[in-house]
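User: Show me a protein chain along with its predicted structure.
Assistant: Here is one chain, sequence first, then C-alpha cells.
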Amino acid sequence: MDRRTFFKSKTSCFTDLNNNTSNSSLQSGENVEELPTDCTAVGPGSSSQGREDNSGNVTNKRGTPVDLGTKDTGPSQPCLPEYPKTLFSKQNRSFSSEYYKTYKFIEYSKEGDAVFCFPCRLFQCSSSAAYRDPAFVINGVRDWKKILAKLQKHADGAPHRQCTEQWHCFEQTKATGSVATLLSESHKTTVQANREYAETIVDILLNLGKQGLSLRGHDEGETSENRGNFLELCNWYARHDRAFSARLNAPFNLTSPDTQNKFLEIAAHLVKDKIIHSIEENGFFAVLVDEARSFKEEQMAVCVRYTEKLEIKEPFLGFVDCSERVDAIGIYGYIKHFLGACGIYSLPTVGQSYDGAAVMSGHVNEVQQKLRQDHPCAVYIHCMAHKLNLVLVDACKVNRTANTFFHIIESLYAFFSQPGTHHAYQKHQKELGVKAELTALSNTRWACRWKNIAAVKSSMRALLSTLSEFAVLPFRRFVEASGLLSNLKKTAFCVCLVVFYHVLSMIHVAHKALQKKDTTLSQASSVMELTIKSLESMRTSDKWEELWMEIEAFCNSLDIQVNEDEREHTHKRPMKRTVALDSCVVTSSVGQREYQSNTTQSVKEKWAQRLYFPVLDTLLGECQSRFSTQTMEIARSVDAVLKCDPEGAQCLLNEYATALSINPKLAYTKMNLVKMNSQHTSSDFVKEALSTGFNPNFEKLFKLALTLPVGTATCERSFSAMRRVRNWMRSTMCQERLSSLSLLHIESDITAALNIEDIISAYHAKSKRRMLLH
C-alpha cells in the first residue's frame, strides 16, 4: 500500500468515529445551533500504543488519544516536570511547555507523546477538504527536532485559520448564546425596560388621581414653565433616573392625553370590578342616589351598600350625567342603565335611599316606585340626615327671633370675610388668646350650624372689640359695623346664642352619627330616639333655669344688660289679645302675634315663652311626625335581628324571606341558639357566632340587617370630591375622565392596592402598541 492510500483509509476511519462522537454529544443535550453549519465536529476517541513512521508521526489503530481536550474543556495543555525524550540522530529531544505560549491552539497527549491542533481536530471545515496532511488532526506530531517549523507552517495555512475562526465563533456563541437566544434575551430585556418605564408612568398617574390633583396643565409645550402636575413630576423623576429620562425624551413615551385616559379608565375599571365582585359574593345590595350641579351639568352620584365579611361597605361607583332628562322616567332610566352596565341590576336590591325630593320619593309613579316594580323588596328609606335638616329648618324658621338671629350670624361672616376686617379680627383674637374662625352658613346642612354658633360664642369679646373699632369714621363700612355691634349687644342675640348652642349641640352629635358609613338602621333609630328624649328633658322649667343662669353670666361677662328689648315690640296700636290662647304657646305668627306683652311676667319668663319653649315644641313635633313612619318599624326589626330576638325579626322576614330564599324556621332556630349562649347579645357577638358556625339562613338575615341603608351621606361626600376633581380650572373635563378620576380619588384605599402590572397588561391587550410591553 502506498503512502497516499494509507492516509486516505486512516482519515475515513476516524471521520466515521468522530461523527459517532458528534451524534452522542447531540443526544446528551448539546445545542446544535452553537456549531457552525459548515463544520464537522471531531471528538476524542480511545487510544493504544502508537508507532512511529518514517516522518516521525504517531499513528493509532483505534483513534486519537483519550486525554485530549473537548469542546467544553478546551485544549489539553498539561505542564509536566519532564516530558518523554526521543532519540533523534545522536541527541534526545522532547516536547516543551514553552510551545503553549507561542502556539495557543496546540494540545499535548501524554499517552501518545504527540502534539495535536485543537481547532483543526474539532472544527475541521468542509471548505478545507483539500487538507492533505492529517498529522495535527489524527495522528499527532512528535518530531521534536523540526516541531517549531511544522507548527509555524501549520499555523500559516488557510485551513488552520478557518478552523481557528470557527473555534473563536464557537467560544463566543457559548458565552453569549445562539442568534435565536440573543434575540430572545434582547426581547426580554427590552420588554422589561419598557414595563419598568410604564410602571413609573402609571404610578405617577395613580398617585395624582388618588390625591384628586389635576394632571394636565394649561400649556404643556416644551417652552412652558409649568406643563402640569403629571409632566412636571415625570421631568422631576427623569432628573434622578437616566434610563427613565432617555425613554421620556423618546417620540413615544406614554404621556399623551389619550394614553393617560386609557390608563385611568383601566385603573378605574379594576377598582369597580373589585367592588362588583364583593357585591356578587354578598348576593344583594342597596342603592344610594343623589344629584348635584357641576357647572352646566347635573351629575348623579351612584353608590351601593353591602357587606363584606359581615362588615358594612358603602363604596362609590361613578357619576352619571343626567342633564338631558331629570324627571322620574329619565332618572330611573339612568339608574337602570348604569347598574346594568356594572352587571348588578339583576341581583336583588333590598333597599333604596334618596333625599326627600318629590321626583325621587313619590309613591305613585316616581323613581322609588319604578324601581320597586322590578325589585319589589327594595324598600325606600328617606335619608335620615336630610330628615333631621328638615326638622331644624322648620323649627328655626317658624320663630321670628330665631330667624333674625341666623341672619345676624350670616351677616357677621359676610362682614369679617373681607381681608381688612378679618385681619383686625384675628389680631384681637390673638390678644385674647382665642382662635375660632367664622364660616359660611349652609342652606342644606343646618346641623353644621352648631360650629358657627360655637365660633361666635367663644370669640364674642373679640367680635365686639373689632366692631367697636370699625363702628366709627373714617371706616367706610362704619354703618354696617354699628348695626352689627348694636345687634350683638342685645339680649335677644345672647339668649339665642346660648339656647341654640345647647340645642344644636345635641343635633350635631346625632347628625354625625347618621352620616357614618357603618351606621345601621337600628343604630340610627336609637340615635333619634335618644335625641328626642334629650329634647324632652330640656323642655322643663329646671333646665330653663340653668340656661337662664348661664345667659345672665354670659351677658355679665360682656357687660351687656339683660332686658326684654321692649323697643322691638312697641307698636302704634295696642295688640289684641285672644283669651283662648292664654294657656297655649303660639308657634306661628299667622293670625296672631308671636309675642304677647304681659307686664306681670319677668324677663326670664318672657324669653321662655318667646323663644325657648316654641323652638323645643317645634323640634319635638317635627321629629315625632317625620321619624314615626314605616322606616322606624323596619329599624326596630333590624335591631331585633342584630340582638337575636326572633319575635322582633318578623317584619324583615315577611318582607324579604321569599326574595332572598330565607327559611324563617331555620333562621329562628339559629337565633335562639345564639341567644342561649349569651344573655347580652350584641352585633359583635353575633358576628363571632356566625364565623364559628355557618348557617346560610341566619347569615342572610344578618347581612340584610346590615345592608339596609340609612341615608345618602356617601353621595354627599362624593360631591365634595367631585368639586375637588372638577374645579373651575378643569371645567372642560369629559364625563369618562371625571368618573374615572373621582372613583380613584374616593376609593383611594382600593386604588392604593392595585397591581400596576395588571394595568399595563390590560393596556397592552387592548391593541398593538408601538412600545413592546409583552
